[in-house]
Amino acid sequence: MVHSVSKQNFYWGSMLVEIILESVITCPKCGHQETETMPTDACQWFYDCKNCAAILSPKEGDCCVFCSFGTVPCPPIQKNSSICCTP
Question: pLDDT, tens digit, for every residue of 54-78?
C-alpha cells in the first residue's frame, strides 16, 4: 500500500515552497509511533500517546511536540519563519 504524504504549497516571496503536513510522533516512554497531521495555524504543545496515554510536551528549546518527537518539524519551522509558537 502506497501512502501519500499530505503537503501544502505556499509562496515565500517569489519562490514556491512545499510544506509537509504529516509527521510520525514517537512516544519517548513506550516507543509507540503514530502518523499525525500537523496544524498549519497553531503549534501543538501537548500530545496524548495513543498507546500508553502519556502526555507529551515540547522539550526545552523546541516550540512544539512535532519538533521534539516528530519525524518532520512543524510548518512554521519548515517555512524558516522567524515567528514561531512558544509554549
Answer: 999 999 989 899 999 999 999 888 8
CA distance 60 to 52: 22
Torsion, Cα 23 29 57 32, to 10 degrees, reads: 20
Residue type, 4: S
Cell 516512554: give the residue. Answer: 29
Q: What share of the chain is helix, strand, coil (3-state, %, to 5)?
A: 10, 30, 60
Mean pLDDT computed over every residue of the chain: 83
What is d(CA 79, CA 21) in angstroms, rounded to the nearest whole number? 12
Q: Which residue has the cell 501537548?
A: 46
8 Å CB contact between 69 and 55: no
- What SS3 class is residue 69? helix
DSSP-derived secondary structure letter, 54: -
